[in-house]
Design a protein that fits this description.
Helices cover 49% and strands 0% of the residues. The protein is mainly α. The two termini are 14 Å apart.
């Protein structure tokens, strides 16, 4: 939303999802890369629309 709809440059922000609901910190850290890839793919698809 911030990047696609509002055009906020990613290099100007620092956002950290501390961990996902239902996960302990170690589980969140292990899944964070996949989560980030999913978000970036959704952003790319939204920009193509």
């Amino acid at each position: 939303h911030l990047f696609v709809d509002h055009g906020l440059p990613k290099e100007d922000v620092s956002i950290s999802g501390y961990w996902r609901l239902g996960m302990v910190e170690d589980e969140w850290q292990a899944s964070k890369r996949e989560f980030t890839e999913e978000i970036e793919a959704a952003e790319a698809a939204a920009l193509e629309s």
